[in-house]
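One thing: could you explain this record?
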Amino acid sequence: MKKLLKEYIIITIGIIIVATGLEVFFFSNNIASGGVSGLALVLNEVLGVEPGIVMIVCNIILFVAAFIFIGGNFGIKSIYAAFGLSFLLSAVEKIYSPIVVTNNLVLVSIFGSVLVAMGTAIMYTQNATTGGTSIIAKILSKYFHIDFGKALLLSDSIVILLAIYTFGIELGLFGLLSVYLIGTLIDKFIDGFNLSKQVMIFTENEELVANYIINDVGRGCTVFYGKGGYTKKQNCVILTILSRAQFIKLRQFMIKNDSNAFITVNETTEVLGQGFKSILDT
C-alpha cells in the first residue's frame, strides 16, 4: 500500500509540473505542442468543436488501446494522470486564466518544453502518462524498441502539421520546436531519473565488503575470483549496482576500512529486476 501511495504521489507531482508548463507557457500563447491538447486546439479553431469533447473522445479510444497493448496497470495510472491533468487545467483556467508570464515565443518554447518534459518523464518512471499521443508513444516504444521521446516526437508530427496549417507558419514552427525539445528532454530526464552506479571492487577483504553491501547498504552483489595479470596473485572482484546515495555510503566505508581496494565505477541508465524496476514494466 505504501508503494502504491508513493507511486500516485509522484504521478501527481508530474501532473502539476505538466499543467504548469501547458497553462503558463503554451496555452497562453496559442502554441500547439503536439498531443491531444494540440489536436483539440486545432479542431476548435477549424470546426468549432469544444476542446474538452475532442480530448475525451480521443483519450477513451487511446486508453482502450493502452489496456489492450500495454496492460491494465499502465491504463489505470494513466487514466488517473489524464483526468487529474484535465481537472487541474480546468480549475486553473476558471480561477486564474489567462496566466501570461511572457510573450517571447522563444522563452515560451524553451521553458514550457522543459516543464512538460520533466513532468512527463516523472510520470513515465511510474509507468504512467497523461494519455493522448503519449499512449501511442508508449506502444511504439514497447513493440518497436524506439526511445520514448523519439516515439512521442513521431506521433506528434501530424498534430504540428495541422497546427501550421491552422495557426500559421510562425506559431506552428514554435510548436514544432517545442515538440522536438520535449521529445529530446524526456529521454534525458528519464535517463537521469534511472541513473545508477555499477561498481566493481577489487579487494582482499571479500567478506567484510560483501557483508557491508548486503547488510548495511541493502543491495545484493556478485563475487568473482581471478588472478592479477601483473602481480599473479589470486584476487576477488565484487560487482554491485547502487544508487548515488548508496555509492557515497559505500565509498565512505571503503575509505575507512579497505583503502587499498581498487574500485571502478560506471554509470548505467537502466537496471531491471532484483530490487530495481521490474522487467515486466519495460
User: Anything to note?
Assistant: The radius of gyration is 23 Å. The mean pLDDT is 83. The chain has two domains: 2-193, 196-281. The longest strand covers residues 234-242.
